[in-house]
Specification:
single chain; about 290 residues; alpha/beta; Carbamate kinase; two-stranded antiparallel sheet; 7 helices
Length: about 290
């Protein structure tokens, strides 16, 4: 394989995009098209499948700001569903599309060392114990990812991490994607999910948001729980050196949907910028987004 030196693209996939076989095949084809042209890292969630498995086992779900409150039984389900079922299914689909994909979690090779989020301050100001939820830490590019990228592989990362003592932690997939995009100085971060970007009160896509708009959306309570995590992840990626960040609709998967278009959404979606040049028009009912 030919070594690749360009800064990578990081694409985060919402778990709802990975459930239906035909959609998964189309999405794998779109990702394979990107991987043919540039280094690619894929991060994925799987929240709906986790929810379904928890319901089957009679484990109640609790969440705040799009972050799952994770006790021991919940962590067992999250680990099994994300690292096992969803990750393997996505890696297999990418292989069928002709891509050399490698399934990982943040615990592999120290890819995402995390610290426990013991007390989390929610957007409404209250403090919550999230349980076994971790926040990635560190500043250096993960060596395992850079090695895989140099040899032409596509790392596919399930949103889990490990603490210094070996404890596994649940990590929000948007948070992990933003962290990796920052650490890798990614050329692009694309967050693909089940909505057409950041939406206004009338359900229309807001084409661009900046720091000031993010503050307004979160501080005013206008962003939904799932969108809060996405916006914060986008901000972290930009602060860390990612060049272009977009939130896009991944439901109509097709080859070419992630074709390079720096500085604007590659599919119907919202560009997130670090500046304060433009603010979205919105009412108090605000912006919406899907969960991880």
């Amino acid at each position: 394989m030919t070594p690749r030196r360009r800064p990578p693209t990081v694409i985060k996939l919402g778990g709802e995009l990975l459930e239906e076989p035909a959609r998964l095949r189309r999405l794998a084809g779109a990702l394979a098209g990107v991987a043919e042209l540039e280094p690619l890292v894929v991060v994925h969630g799987g929240g709906r499948e986790v929810d379904a498995e928890m319901a089957r086992l009679g484990i109640p779900k609790r969440a705040v700001d799009g972050l799952r409150i994770t006790d021991g039984p919940t962590l067992d389900v999250v680990t099994g569903v994300l690292a096992g079922r969803v990750n393997t299914r996505l890696v297999a689909a990418l292989g069928a599309a002709g891509t050399s994909a490698v399934g990982l979690t943040g615990a592999d090779g120290g890819l995402a060392r995390v610290r426990r989020e013991r007390r989390y301050r929610a957007a409404n100001g209250t403090e919550v114990d999230l349980g076994f939820v971790g926040r990635p830490i560190g500043a250096d590019p993960p060596a395992l990812l850079t090695d895989l990228l140099k040899t032409g592989h596509v790392p596919v990362v399930a949103s889990l991490g490990a603490g210094t003592g070996g404890q596994v932690f649940n990590v929000n997939a948007d948070t992990l994607a933003g962290f990796l995009a920052a650490r890798l100085r990614a050329r692009r971060l694309i967050i693909a999910g089940g909505t057409a970007g950041v939406l206004d009160a009338n359900g229309r896509t807001i084409p661009m948001v900046d720091d000031r708009a993010i503050d307004a959306l979160i501080g005013g309570g206008q962003a939904s729980a799932g969108m809060v995590a996405k916006l914060l992840a986008c901000r972290a990626a930009l602060a860390g050196g990612a060049v272009a960040v977009t939130i896009v609709d991944g439901r109509k998967a097709r080859r070419g949907m992630f074709d390079d278009a720096p500085g604007r959404a590659v599919a119907a979606g919202t560009t997130v910028t670090a500046g304060t040049r433009q603010r979205p028009r919105m009412s108090r009912t605000g912006a919406r987004g899907e969960r991880r």
